[in-house]
Amino acid sequence: MSTGVVTGMLAEARLLAGLDFRVVATGGNPVATAARTEQLIRDGARRLISFGIAGALDPRLRPGDLIVATGVVLPNGQTVLGDADWLQSVRRKLPEAIPGTIAGCSSAVATCADKAALHRRTGALAVDMESHHVASAAHGRGLPFMALRAVADLADDDLPPAALVGLDSEGRPAIWPVLCSLLSAPGQMPALIRAALRSRVALKALLRGRAGLL
Q1: CA–CA distance, 63 with 53 (Å, rounded to integer)
Q2: Taking a C-beta distance cutoff of 8 angstroms, is the pair 116, 48 a contact?
Q3: pTM (2 d.p.)
Q4: I need a labelling partner for 192 at 20 to 30 A (CA). Which of 53, 56, 177, 210 fits?
């Protein structure tokens, strides 16, 4: 069965190199994510995966924790359930992965206050910017989907502005916008370094987690 995978960062997509998947990176751009998810289906994908890092909403989560989504909470509050058989298969292969819902949001949830509010409203473990597009497309076409995400920033982290402009629409690093942000507010450098280090931990966890997709 042809599998399509949607990621935010090109670095996430590269973790799946060598696997027989169709993978797209969209840079967290909502228009590009929706369009490329639909294109995967038109190109023959018969099941979909959302794969990448996420921001913790549950304060118990730590960087590198793997989450296998039982469902995705859409921005309208609807929860789209993942494929139960697929979920069980991934959990057998990744016993350390934490099951639970993921919230999808088309804009970054950057502050601890916003994360806390979203956690109260949805009960989701974490949030990302791609899973709701994948879940919506799969639900609309009657296709199985799953989401595997690794925690980067914590529930009590405030992401610095430079971290929010770090990707282009292809999921590649956008160096110039980051430099401009740092020049305008150099005091955010420690928070940016912390965010980068935690993202690196999350990417290492995702590399381990790819075994659950086989």
Answers
A1: 10
A2: no
A3: 0.94
A4: 210
**Cα 145 to Cα 96: distance, rounded to the nearest angstrom:** 20
What pLDDT is stored for residue 17 in this prediction?
Answer: 94
Ranges of each domain in the chain: 3-213
Does residue 1 surpass a pLDDT of 70? Answer: no
Q: Which of 43, 38, 18, 44 is nearest to 26 (CA)?
A: 38
Task: Name the nearest CA neighbour of 56 among 157, 165, 160.
Answer: 157
Q: What is the CA radius of gyration of the chain?
A: 16
- Domain 3-213 CATH class label: alpha beta
Task: Tell me, rounded to whole angstroms, the distance of Cα 75 from its chain centroid.
Answer: 15
User: Is there a contact between 191 and 79 (Cβ–Cβ < 8 Å)?
Assistant: no
Q: What is the pLDDT of residues 45-95, one digit of tens each?
A: 999 999 999 999 999 999 999 999 999 999 999 999 999 999 999 999 999
Measure the CA dihedral 131/134/136/139, to 10°: -120
3-state secondary structure of 44: coil
Q: For residue 58, give Cα distances in angstroms to 103, 127, 174, 176.
A: 11, 10, 29, 33
Task: Tell me the pLDDT band of 167, cut-offs 50, 70 and 90.
Answer: confident
CA distances for 114 relative to 67, 71, 109, 123, 131, angstroms: 20, 21, 6, 13, 18
